[in-house]
Amino acid sequence: MKEPGYFKTIYLSVKSLLTGMRMTGYYFTHPKETHTEQYPDNRATLKMMDRFRGEVIMPHDETNEHRCTGCQSCEIACPNGSIKIITKQEVNAEGKKKKAIDTWVYHLDMCTMCNLCIVACPTDAIKMGQKFEHSVFDKSLLKKILNEPGSKVKSGVE
Amino acid sequence: MKTVLTISLSSIAGHIHQWLEKAIGNPTIVYLIDMVLVAVCLLVFLVLLCFFLGWMERKVAAFMQIRLGPNRVGPKGSMQIVADTVKLLFKEGLTPAASDKFLFHLAPMIVVIASMMVCAPLAFAKDFQIFDISIGVLYVSAVSSLGIIGILMAGWSSYNKYSLLGAMRSGAQIVSYELSIGLSLISVVIMVGSLKMSDIVMSQSDGWWIWKGHIPMIISFIIFVVASTAEINRAPFDLTEAEQELTGGFHTEYSGMKFAMFLLSEYINLFVVSAIAATLFLGGWMPLHIGHLQSFNHIMDYIPSSIWFMGKTMFIIFIIMWFRWTFPRLRVDQLLNLEWKYLLPISMVNILLVTLMAIMGWHF
Amino acid sequence: MSLLGEDIVTEDGLFVVNMGPQHPSTHGVLHLKVWLDGETIHKIEPHMGYIHRSIEKMSENLSYRNFIFATSRMDYLAAHINNEACALAVEKGLGIQATPRAKVIRILMGELTRLASHQLWWGCTGLDLGAVSPFFYAFRDREAINDIMEETCGARLTQNYVVPGGVMFDIHPNFQKRTKEAIANFKRNLTDYDKLLTGNVIFENRTKGVGILTKEDAISFGVTGPTARASGLSCDVRKWFPYSGYENVEFDEILATEGDCFARYMCRMAEMRQSVRIIEQLIDNIPEGDFQEKTKAVIKLPKGEFYQRVETPRGELGVFIVSDGAASPYRVKYRSPGFSNLSALSTMAKGGKIGDLVAIMATIDLVIPDIDR
Ligand code: SF4
Ligand code: SF4
C-alpha cells in the first residue's frame, strides 16, 4: 500500500477526527440517549429481575410455617460454609420423634449468591430474595437466623 | 435613538474611579486603591469563572457520554464544584518527605500567578481592559509560557518519577508549540499592524478577521486553537498528566489546596487562550455585523459587548472541551511530530500568504 | 537490594519505575517493574501475587458440583465460559454430555459473555489511550447483555449458571426477545465504535506498528486468543477442539498477520461480529427438551486425569482435573490465558515508549484475577 501524500494525510486525519467529533456531538445534542439510572431516587420504581439473587430467604406462610425439614442438604451444598443448621428432635402428634430445625443460621457476609443451596433443597424451603442493599456498619448484623421464632415446619412436608 | 443602556462595564469603572477621586483626592492613593480593586475583582471573577468552567466541563462530558453529570448539589448540580472546593480546602496537604519543600510549595503559586497575569491585556468589554499595554500580543505570548516553570518545578521537587517524567514531557511540549502559537498570533498582527489589543479589536469593527482574512486566517485560527490546546496541556495533548501512563504526571504528589491551584490554573489558562482566540480572530467584544443589514446590525448592537466577548470565548472553550471528550491521547513523539512536521511548516507558509495578502490588500 | 540503589536508577543509567500495583492502566493489582531509558522501555518484569486466592487449592476440598462457582472469580469478565470449562471437564470424567438444549444455551450465553467482555475491552482500550467517552458507550451496550444475564442466570457477572450435565435452570421466557433487541442495538452501535476509534488518526498512530508480536514469539510464549490470532497463529479452540456443539455453528476464525496493537484491536472487533453471527444463528433454534442431564447427587469421577479447554475472550482456558475416585478432585489446575499472554509483554513492549506499553496492555486485554488465581 502506498503511503498517502502529505496533504492527503492531513485531509484524511482531519476527516477522521471530525467523524469522531460528529459522534460525540450527536450524543451531546440528543439528551434522550442518556442512560443514567438515578439510583437511589428511583427506588420506588426499581424492579429487580425475578431471578435476581440478592440473599437467601426462607418464606413463611401466614400461620408462621416454613417448609424446611432440617435435612441439611443445603449446608452440604454450600461451597463456603455460609449455612449452619442446628437441628433438634421434636415429638410430633403421633408421639414419634422427628428431626426439625432449631436455628437456620445464614452468614450473608460469606455468601456468594451461587444458588447451589436453593437447587439442593428437596422441599423448596429456601429461595433467593431480591433485596440487595445489605450494607451495615456492623458485620455481626449480617449473620441472620432465617427461621422465625415460634415457626414450625408445614405439615405434610417431608 | 440614544436611549440605549448607558450602563456598561466601562462606565461603572469610570464612575467608581471618579467617586474615589472626589472622596480621597490624592491621585497616588486613588491609583493604589484602583489597583487593589482591580486585583480583587479579577480574582473573584476568575474563581467564579473556574467554578462555572468546572461545572460546564462536567456537564459537557456527561452529555457527550450519555450521562447526566452532577445533579445532586444545587440546581442541576451547579454547586457540586463548590462542594468539591470545600472538600479540597479541608483535605490534608501532603508533602513527600524527600521533596524539595520550598520549590514544592512555590510551584502551584507560580502556575496560578502566571496564568492570572495573562488576563491583564484582555479586552473584556468595550473600553474595559485592565491594562491596554502597547505590546499586548507579545506580552501574552511571553507571560503565558511562564507557567511551565511552575510545572517543571512541581515535577522536579516532588521526588517522584512519574512527576519528573510528566514535567519533562511538558517542557518539550511547550517549547515546540510556543512556535506555532507565535506564528499564528503574528498573522493577525501583520494584518492589523499593531500589537495593541484594543487596536486589534477595533480593526475588526467591519468584520472579524476570520471572515476578512478568509482561508489563511481560518488556517491560523485552527492552528492557534490546536496549538493552544497543546500548550495548556489539555487532552488530547495532556501528556504531562496522562493519567493512564503517569498516574497524575507533574501533580501526582499534590493534594488538597495545592492540587486545587493546579486545577484553577488549568481553567484560567483555558479561559485565557480562548479569550485570546476570540479577541484576535472572532472580533473580541465586537458584535456580529452582516454587511448592510442595518436592522440586524442594530439588534446586534443592543447586546452588551461583554456578552459578546464571553459568548465567543465560551464557544471556543466548548470546542476545546469537545476535543477532550472525543479524542485519544497522542504519544510523546507523535506530539512533536504533529508540531514539527505539520503545524509549523503550515503556519510558516501561512505567514507568507498573510503577508502577501496584507501587502496586496486582498482582504475585505 | 537497598531501596535507594538499583531500585531507582541502575548502574547503566536506566530509570526504574514501578507501575502498579496501584496504577490506572494496569486494570487491577498488577505490578510491572519497568526499566526506562528516558521514555523508552528497556525491560519489563511483571510481579504477581497481589490477588492470589488459591482457587486451585480450594477446589481440592470442594465437591465436583461446588468447585465450579469459584471459577467465576478467575476471569470475572468471562465467568460463564470459565464455569462451562469446569462443567465440561467434569462431564468428560463422568462420560456424559449435556442435553442438546443445554448445549445451545451454553453457546448462546458464552457468546453473549464474549460480546460483553469485548465491549468492556473496547471501552477500556479507549480509556487507556486517553479517550474517555468510548468507555461509556461500551458500558451502555454491555449493560443490555448484563440484563440478559441477570434475567436468566440471576446474576450479572458471577453467573454460576452451568452445572455438570447442563445448566442450572431453563432460560427465562424473555430471553430470546431481549437478546434479539440487544443484538440489534449492538449491531447499530458497532458502527459508532468504528467511527470513534477505529478510523481515528490518533488511535491508528497509537496502535499501528506498536508492540509487534511475531508468530514465532506467540508460539514460544504460549500466547493464545485474539492476541495470538492477530499474529497469524490459528488457535481458536472453538474451531480446533470444538466443544458444546461449536462444530455445528458457522463462524470464521479471525486471523491477521501484522501482530501489532491495531491488528489485535481489529481481531477483537471482528470477533464481536462473529459472536453476533453465532447468536443470530442459534437464537431461534434452541432445541426443545431438558435443560439438564440427570446426575447423581454426589458426583464421583473415576480415577484418572481429565483436561478440557475452552476459548475465553482472552484465549485458551484449560481445566485439568486429577481424580482419585473421591467426591472432590485430587488436584485441579487451570491454564489461564492471561498468564501466558502477560509473559509476552516484555518482548512486545521493548523499545517502545510508556504510551506504547499502555496500548499493548490494553490490547492484550489483561484481567488480573485470571493471571493470578
Ligand atoms: S447461595 Fe451459595 S454461598 Fe450462599 S448460602 Fe447458598 S450455597 Fe452458600
Ligand atoms: S432449607 Fe431445604 S435443604 Fe436446607 S435443611 Fe431445610 S429442607 Fe433441607
Kindly describe this structure:
The complex is a heterotrimer of chains A (158), B (364) and C (373). By secondary structure, chain A is α+β, with helices and mostly antiparallel strands. Chain A folds into 2 domains: 31 residues; 99 residues, Alpha-Beta Plaits (2-Layer Sandwich), CATH 3.30.70. Helix content of chain A is 22%, strand content 21%. In chain A, strands 3-4-6 form a 3-stranded antiparallel β-sheet, with no helix packed on it. Chain A has a two-stranded antiparallel ribbon with strand order 1-5. In chain A, strand 3 and strand 4 form a beta hairpin. The longest helix of chain A has 24 residues. With 364 residues, chain B is mostly helical. Chain B has one domain. Chain B is built from 15 helices and 2 strands. In chain B, strands 1-2 form a two-stranded antiparallel ribbon. In chain B, helix 3 packs across helix 12. Chain B is globular, with a radius of gyration of 22 Å. The N terminus of chain B is likely disordered. By secondary structure, chain C is an alpha+beta fold. In chain C, strands 1-2-3 form a 3-stranded antiparallel β-sheet. In chain C, strands 6-7-8 form a 3-stranded antiparallel β-sheet. A two-stranded antiparallel ribbon of chain C has the order 4-5. Chains in contact: A-B, A-C, B-C. Chains B and C meet through helix 7, helix 11 and helix 15 of B and helix 4, helix 5, helix 7 and helix 14 of C. The site of one iron/sulfur cluster has 13 residues of chain A, from helix 2.
